[in-house]
UniProtKB/TrEMBL annotation:
Protein name: ABCB family ABC transporter ATP-binding protein/permease
Keywords, alphabetical: ATP-binding, Cell membrane, Membrane, Nucleotide-binding, Transmembrane, Transmembrane helix, Transport
A molecular-function term among this protein's GO annotations: ATP binding
Membrane topology value: Multi-pass membrane protein
Subcellular localization, as worded in the UniProt entry: Membrane
Limits of the ABC transporter domain: 54-288
Coiled coil stretches, renumbered: none
Main location class: membrane
Signal sequence extent: none
Record organism: Candidimonas humi
Claim: Ion transport is one of the keywords in the record: no
């Protein structure tokens, strides 16, 4: 019986590996399923650029024809600039990023990259030019190295380490017993929200896309983590065309332009200073966050927002 133990144990291991690999694939296909909404046009061209401007012109959109989510949204992000979008939950902020990534096509208006309608670009080339740091990063059941290198499968070990350093996760990784070989994901080490976001940032830095979408996590953060994320954001958005879906106004004070979205409409736009001076919705939201009014229990945030 003891002779049987090793092979059976091995078979059990193989079974678990296959099951987890399938779970990863399911998750990936879960993401890809949304693609069915759009198809490449026969004459679609491939986007090929290191600098990209993004333009939304009179964009109307609803996931369902009976319910309009975005109404006449227009904005331009010149190449290398940062635009931040703020607004209440459900206002349509993340929907903007899904449209830019072309998970869906707008029902009205036009979205352009470098002046070209995204519907005239191949989806693969468009998406290759966009890096997303999502609110909640999905980690594969694999090593930290694999999870970062996923951004660029041809990356060398030095490239991965450099990206991890820029994303400020290298020191943490080196403090683990298995370092870059540490298993993460459901079966391995559970990373905190901030650590997972840094893995996503390292992945994005490795991919080095000209367009960046940063979907800020909604969860309350202590002021130290918040400041660290702000620094990371500045690091990755430098020289990139950046769209920030923001929940904390303190992280976007440096943005070139801020849009305030309400029920899918742009109700205000300007710089942080300009919007504060205007004394409208943004100024009101700023005062509320400063007083900690919409983040109960996170007293530290006041210090940063002030
Ligand atoms: P939050 O700050 O909570 O992330 P948000 O401003 O990013 O919110 P969106 O995710 O853009 O909001 O959602 C806008 C609206 O669209 C919401 O009312 C939401 O219910 C709806 N919605 C989002 N995704 C889908 C979908 N896949 N199918 C149908 N409706 C959706």
């Amino acid at each position: 019986l003891t002779q049987l133990y090793a092979p059976l144990n091995f078979l059990g291991f193989v079974y678990r590996e296959i099951k987890h690999a399938l779970a990863d694939m399911e998750r990936m296909f879960g993401l890809l399923e949304q693609d069915q909404e759009v198809a490449d046009r026969p004459q679609a061209s491939a986007l090929d650029t290191t600098r990209a401007s993004v333009e939304f012109e009179h964009v109307d959109f609803g996931y369902d024809s009976r319910r309009r989510i975005l109404h006449d949204v227009s904005f331009t992000i010149p190449a290398g600039h940062t635009l931040a979008v703020v607004g209440a939950s459900g206002a349509g902020k993340s929907t903007l990023s899904r449209l830019l990534f072309r998970f869906y096509d707008a029902q009205g208006g036009t979205i352009r990259v470098n002046g070209v309608d995204v519907r005239d670009l191949t989806q693969a080339s468009l998406r290759w030019h966009i890096g997303i740091v999502p609110q909640d990063t999905v980690l594969f059941n694999d090593t930290i190295f694999y999870n970062i290198a996923y951004g660029d499968t041809g990356a060398s070990r030095d490239d991965v380490i450099q990206a991890a350093k820029s994303a400020r996760i290298h020191d943490f990784v080196m403090s683990l017993p298995d370092q870059y070989e540490t298993q993460v994901g459901e079966r391995g080490l559970k990373l905190s929200g901030g650590e997972k976001q840094r893995v996503a940032i390292a992945r994005t830095l490795l991919k080095n896309p000209p367009i960046l979408i940063f979907d800020e996590a909604t969860s309350a953060l202590d002021s130290r983590t918040e400041r660290a994320i702000q620094e990371e954001l500045e690091q990755i958005s430098r020289d990139r065309t950046t769209l920030i879906i923001a929940h904390r106004l303190s992280t976007i004070a440096h943005a070139d332009q801020i849009l305030v979205l309400e029920h899918g409409r742009v109700v205000e736009r300007g710089t942080h200073a300009g919007l504060l001076a205007a004394g409208g919705r943004y100024a009101q939201m700023w005062r509320l966050q400063q007083s900690g009014g919409d983040r109960p229990g996170d007293g530290e945030g006041q210090e940063l927002a002030a």
